Amino acid sequence: MGVIRECGGKMHLREGEFERAHTDFFEAFKNYDESGSPRRTTCLKYLVLANMLMKSGINPFDSQEAKPYKNDPEILAMTNLVVSYQNNDINQFELILKQNRNNIMDDPFIREHIEDLLRNIRTQSYNMRPPDK
């Protein structure tokens, strides 16, 4: 069941249906977690990606299912990305991407959506700056 939900999540994310993708990735993550599959960490990364793309103010690691993985070495970079993204800290976001290039950018699915995240955070940062006088 996890594979089906993961594929559904990927399809929805590519179609810009971020909430549906988030739901599918969360269900896939839970299925993988219950069965002890190592795919759970990859799916959790996708869940975090969908969470950021849907511009949710809720940290995905606040859920009881995801919380135990918050400091997992494979997940830590994504944990930090969420915090910088939600704080609209473009400098920290770019630094995390640079320092964790292998962990984040080596996944082709995540890599194809990083530009969208960068555009979102740059737009937010620009909109939050004080107006020119």
Query: How many strand elements?
Result: 0
Q: Structural class, from secondary structure content?
A: mainly alpha
N-to-C CA distance = 57 Å
| H/E element sequence | HHHHHHH
Quaternary class: single chain
Sheet of most strands? none
Rg (CA only): 15 Å
Q: What integer is the average pLDDT?
A: 91
Task: List segments where confidence is low: pLDDT < 50 over at least 5 consecutive residues.
Answer: none
Helix content: 55-70%
Structurally, the number of domains stands at 1
Strand % is under 5%
The backbone outline, from C-alpha atoms, is globular
So how many helices? 7
Domain PCI: 21-133
Protein name: Cop9 signalosome complex subunit 2
Structure, described:
The protein is mainly alpha-helical and 133 residues long. The protein has one domain. The chain is built from seven helices and no strands. It has helices at residues 2-14, 18-35, 39-53, 76-86, 90-99, 101-105, 108-128. Helix 3 packs parallel to helix 4 (76-86) and helix 3 packs parallel to helix 7. The chain is globular. The protein starts with a helix and ends in a 5-residue tail after the last helix.
